[in-house]
Amino acid sequence: MRIDVVTIFPEYLAPLRAALLGKAIERGLIGVHVHDLREWTHDVHRAVDDSPYGGGPGMVMKPQVWGEALDEVCGPERIAAEGRPPRLVVPTPAGRPFTQRLAREYAEEEWLVFACGRYEGIDERVVTDAARRMPVDEVSIGDYVLVGGEAAVLVIVEAVVRLLPGVLGNPASAAEDSFSDGLLEGPCYTRPEQWRGLAVPEVLRSGNHAAIARWRRDRALERTFHRRPDLLAALPDEALDRHDRAV
Ligand code: 6GU
Question: Are 51 and 60 in contact (CB under 8 A)?
């Protein structure tokens, strides 16, 4: 998978080369290319923003700079070279929610381009124009406001790359984590059996695999009921069996 990021703070994306993501780069599973948006400015001040039409606070990122940047990073020539257009992802608190389902969709893509906005946003015509050549998603990572899209890109890329074959040591961790069955994961334990007066639940040491699976399912249901009732409500009818409904 190829990942391009256009930002006015390229150093903010340094964590993409650390830990799990760095390993994925070293092993050739992903290629990461971070671009400084200011390279496409032409004025001495290297201005990327201007005041908003219609007035109001804050600044809006200029369309010409973004247009030239995206032309070079993922314009017609680059699309011809790659054989097909990328999926362009624009992080914004006004976007559609980024979910595990969208992470799985992105994990199927061969090329993702992220356009990080700062200030109040990017001139709307940048997205409209890009959408003439490639699919564009404006996505939000949650109901709160960040200063810019960079931290959101770190979140999205980490969620996507861990799903790529060969990135996680144990593929079952991706298959069994929270959300894959629509529920939150329940609690987990390791040695010692007793710690500060707290015991590991007996059933987990019983060796009874059916009882362990049932216990884990019950704790996941309980936790989801208390912390994320919206997730339980969204489950399809057949996702819960008779035992589940008794919890
Ligand atoms: Cl993706 N960007 C910004 N700037 N703020 C956010 C966000 C994204 N998601 C939630 N808040």
Answer: yes
